[in-house]
Amino acid sequence: MGKTAEAIAEGVSIASAAARLAVRNHILVETIAHDEPFEISRIAPFAHDTLIALAEEQEEAAALAKRQRKKAWGKFTDPDGTHDYRDRDMRNLRKRHRQYVGVAKELRRIAEDPHAVRTLVEQSRDAAWGDVEANLQRRLRAEGMRPDLDPDYETMRAARMQSLRLVDLPRLAAHRRKVAEGEAGAGEDAGPVEDAPAARAGGIDLTELDA
């Protein structure tokens, strides 16, 4: 029973984490995407329903374990696959059934406890704000960063320059050639057109670059 209780506690912990994640995402959508004010009374019903849905998943798993146990009874041949249980698996399947039932029961208890639901909503709100704060800090660092304050500037500069040489400059050269060809074609009836001056960037003749 001790191991079963530990397994149930671990299952409840995992399910609670999943509930917090779902409620956190709901808060972000409601407050940011839909521009709705945060109110615990508005979020609590969603948190309650989330816990009930997770409890129902555990009950379905318990029912499956029970069916598998009945099917495995009296079978002593070698299994054909991972979920092809035999009589020797009866004990483990019985333990799984008890654990699933225990987790479902605890989740339903939490869902019907207003204080527990409120705590879940508050924890989810804190997690949502943590995400928003982290995104703001990353954005501020990116927009306000100076080369002398960025420890990765030199490394990333080399990568950016390589991208400029291998991608951006060839694209620019191809674009300039296309523009020049279009201008030449449009001016055929008006007489000869002087060659367009070679486009250069940083001392590089862009017309010599392949697209």
Word description of this protein:
With 211 residues, the protein is an all-alpha fold. The protein has 2 domains: 2-144, no CATH class; 153-208. It is 72% helix and 2% strand. It contains 5 helices and 2 strands. Strand 1 (200-201) and strand 2 (204-205) form a beta hairpin. Helix 1 crosses helix 2 (40-72) and helix 1 (2-33) crosses helix 4. The radius of gyration is 32 Å and the shape is elongated.
For the structure shown, list the relevant keywords.
elongated; 2 domains; 211 residues; mainly alpha
Please summarize what this structure is.
The protein is an all-alpha fold and 211 residues long. The protein has helices at residues 2-33, 40-72, 90-111, 114-144, 153-186, and strands at residues 200-201, 204-205. A two-stranded antiparallel ribbon has the order 1-2.
List the helices and strands and how they pair.
Blueprint: H1 2-33, H2 40-72, H3 90-111, H4 114-144, H5 153-186, E1 200-201, E2 204-205
Helix pairs in contact: 1-2, 1-3, 1-4, 2-3, 2-4
Question: Roughly what is the average pLDDT, rounded to an integer?
Answer: 81
| Tertiary shape | elongated
* Strand arrangement, major sheet: 1-2
Low-confidence stretches: none
Instruction: Tell me the total number of β-strands.
Output: 2
Percent strand: under 5%
Reading the helices and strands in chain order gives: HHHHHEE
How many alpha or pi helices? Answer: 5
> In this structure, how is the largest beta sheet organized?
2 strands, antiparallel
Terminal CA distance: 70 Å
Radius of gyration: 32 Å
> Percent range for helical residues?
over 70%
Structural class designation: mainly alpha
Number of structurally distinct domains: 2
